[in-house]
Amino acid sequence: MIPTPPPAAAGAAPGASGRVGPQLDHVGLSVADLDAQAEWYSRALGLEQLEPGGIPAVGLRVVFLVDPDGGWAIELLNRPGSQPKPRAATAPEHVLSQGYGHICLRVTDVDATFAQLIAAGASEIMAPGESPVSGVRMAFVADPEGNFIEILDRPGPPGTPVATVSA
Fold this sequence. Notes:
Layout (H helix, E strand, L loop, with lengths): L26 E4 L3 H12 L2 E2 L3 E3 L4 E7 L6 E6 L12 H4 L7 E5 L3 H10 L3 E8 L6 E6 L5 E5 L15
């Protein structure tokens, strides 16, 4: 049985446009060491682990990690025989591989979150600095298995150009 996150998004509210539609629920991440990664993401990001589950017939193990405020979740998956993608040393090199490339966390303090993740065992990929979008700071780290995590402080909804965000 695959665990289900709390029904916080049930009956989704309209977005800024007034449209009621799909909302991102979680990101799935296949990992080599489910227990170690679940512990790391819980400790590094303050996520709460739900009861583990999976599909025993195919050897799939699953742990759902949820934000205590119910805003987002990561589903960690582990199946014997899974293979890692090629690892990149930089963010630009990382996009040479197709498929999901990273998760991105919007934070109020890029430097503090970067330091928190590094202290928790993340690897530095790109130190905090200005992003290509004026007025936005960003950084990249990699979790203990090399999966990229972007950190940024963009105001407004995802994709909003900074120039259009009212102060």
